[in-house]
Every structure is written in C-alpha cells, then in structure tokens.
Amino acid sequence: MYKRSFLVVVTLSFCLIFGFHPDEVHSRKLKLIKAGDLFPETYLLVPADPRDREYLGLLKGEFFTLKEIKADLVVVEILSIYCLSCRKQMAPYNKLFNLIENDPTTRGRIKIIGIAVGNGEALVKKFRKKYKIRFPIIPDPEFALHRAIGGGRTPFTIYVRQDPDGQTAVVADTHLGKNTKYERLFQELRTMVTVDLATIRKDSELKEADTIVVKPILTELELQEKVKGLFSTFTGKVAQFQKVTLRNTEEIYIGLIEHEGTSRRLFARVTSRPATCDLCHDIHFIYVFDSSGEVLRFEPIQLTKGGNKIWNEADLAKMRERVLGRYIFTPYSFNPEVDAVSSATITSAIIIDAIFRGEDLLQELREKGLI
Known about the structure:
By secondary structure, the chain is of the alpha+beta class.
C-alpha cells in the first residue's frame, strides 16, 4: 500500500512539474469565418477556361482574390469532391445558378464560385464534367483558403458582399452543412444583394461564428503512454519527458533519449483535425521528428476510410512510406493517384498537409531553446 501511494505522489508531482494533468482532455475548437468578417485575401488560381474567367469578370493571369470578382454578392461554396453531401448539393446549386442567370435583376450581380478543398485541378475538372456543374470551381489543393476561413467540414457556404469600390469583401452570412432548398435560397440572395455593408456589419455583431469541435480520442494519460511508447522504440533510455504548449495552443511532447553517454531530443506532435466531409470521422494521429525536422515515426490514433472503416496495416504501411524520412519543412505536393491510401483520399491529403508545413513549428522550437 505504501508503494502504491508513493507511485501516485511521484506521478502527480511529475505532471505538475511539466504543467499537465494525467486526466485532462482538451477538445480542439475551430471558429469559422462569420458575418461581418472580411473575406481573406488568399490567392486563388485564375480559371483556365475563358468562359469561367468571363463569368467571374477576371483578366487572364495566374492568381486572383475574391474581391476581384465582378459581382455585388458572391456565393462561395467550400466543398470537397469526395464529400457525399457536397455531391448531393451540386444539382440544386446548378438550379440556383440557372435562377440567378435567368433573372435580369440578379444576373451579373450575384455569382457562384466553388472552392475544392484539398483537390487538384484535374480532379476538379472531372468532377465538374460528371455533375455538369456550370459555375466555376477553383482547386485549393494545399488548403490555403480552407485554413484562412477557419478550417472545418464541408459543405460550408459563405455569402460575400462586395464593396462597390472593389476594395473590400465582407461576409454577409454563412451556412454550415448541406442546403438543397435552392428556391428559398434564391429569394434570400435577392434580399442580401440589396443590403449595404454598414448594415451587414451592424447586424453581424449579434451573430456567433459556427464552431467545429474535434473531440479527443484518448485521455491525457493515454496520450502520454502512447507517446512514451513511440519514444521507447529508439535506441536508448527516455531520460526526460515533457509537454510544451505552442503559440497556436496545440501541444507537443518532447523526449530526451540517452544512449552510451550521448543524448538526442525527439518531438512528438499529436494532430487532430476535422475531415473535410460532414459524414467522415475526425482525423487523429501522432508523428515523431528530430531536431533536424526529419519524420521518424507515424502512429494512428483514429484514421478511417470509405464507410468509416479503420485503416489496416497495409494502409498504414503506405502512409509511412510516404512520410517517413522526409522533412517537415519541405513542401509536399499531394498527388492522390500516388499518395492516397485506397478509399481514404481525404484523410491522406489532410495527413500530408498537417505534417509538411513545419517550418514555423521548428522556428518556434528554436525560439524556445528546444532545438
């Protein structure tokens, strides 16, 4: 009994020293862009099709921002071509497009544009052809705009009111989830296009942003044990173990591995992200890297594929082949035909995106004196 009490005291003291409690569990909350916010000036690829450029009022070039679109109101549809709800929404949105274009009071004033999160140009082209989509869809293969609006699941619709001087694009409203009631939406858009920016800003003060909550799969104690287990697969003894909170409130575990008079510091990042699909499971995994930024281990917590089936060993082996030995600060252009685990393209793309944007992470670790 005395031995057990001693172990409990030691464990609690250890946790207090390093600033975490063994039972605390933190949900990750993502606040999405909301009414009254300025729409981010993220650069998007100018469509190759001249009909799309003409519809949007864009000159031929490489990039554009949303405020350059010639319209009073822009319906921005955040989607993924692998999202079933997004696919089901395409037919109603084609009908919405027709209503807008066939009404002289809305044609030219209201325009629709899709943003395909994590999808490349070739896939977007096939998607548009299959669903006979008339409005432009712009690929966002590296999740740039998706991050700028807060991340989150698809479909997510943002209604953007353009400033007459072309200098400002203000969010008038948003809708999270599928919306197939295109006739009612059309009437709402007809009203929305007449509202001035000052009124939008005033009304938005009473509106709350949609929040995406990513719930943890493991408790803090379970995470510690899992990370320690990963650290113990390296030659040597785990002499020190701690957790550090980063600027973006995410946390990273650090282990000091000692072997034959030498020491090596390793880092483990627990990543939790929502899938870009409203019907898919959230994505949870751990990757371990060293002071140089080289990825050394990849371990699942929850990874699923079509039908929300858990990844098998072959799936994990393929992803490990893609990520191990690479450096977190080196950009990785995801190719679904090569890099995706079968029936898990969304999850695969998010994993690649989450790991290989680590330049700021390494810089922060340097600033903290940990590298």
